[in-house]
Amino acid sequence: MDRYRVTSDWKAAYPDPIVLSAPEELWLSGKSDTWDGYVWVWARNQRGKEGWIPDTLVQNRAGKTYANADFSAVELTCHRGEELLALSKTHGWILCRAQSGAEGWVPARNLSAI
């Protein structure tokens, strides 16, 4: 697994982010945003939680929209100089584990490979 050093502080933006379990049905608002060249769409899960998800997570079948993989939008608050372990990467973000054991997404632009 890759290791990274935080080059710029990051504070989690959403205290209660969207979480999806494939093949959970979801609803798209029509809003989209581009982050470092990647498309994110605003979605609502079956429990009413809303948030940004990667566009590649969306699958349409028989007129309904589903998550094609599990996804949690939990972000990791971290500080410059911290070392993090990369667990996954997508859409300009890296899912990291801190030395404390906390896990969450951090923008790739805030990290440097060690």
Question: What is the strand tally?
Answer: 12
State the helicity in percent bands. under 10%
Shape: elongated
- SS content category: mainly beta
The biggest sheet amounts to: 5 strands, antiparallel
What do the pLDDT scores average to? 96
Note the run of SSEs as H and E.
EEEEEEEEEEEE
Kindly provide the radius of gyration, computed on alpha-carbon positions and rounded to a whole number of angstroms: 15 Å
Poorly predicted runs of 5 or more residues: none
Strand percentage: over 45%
Oligomeric form? single chain
Cα-to-Cα separation, first versus last residue = 11 Å
Number of helices: 0
The strand line-up of the biggest sheet is 11-10-9-1-12
Describe the structure.
By secondary structure, the chain is mainly β. The protein has strands at residues 3-6, 19-20, 25-35, 38-44, 50-54, 58-61, 64-67, 71-72, 83-90, 93-98, 103-107, 111-113. A 5-stranded antiparallel beta sheet has the order 11-10-9-1-12, with no helix packed on it. It has a 5-stranded antiparallel beta sheet with strand order 5-4-3-7-6, with no helix packed on it. It is elongated and about 45 Å long.
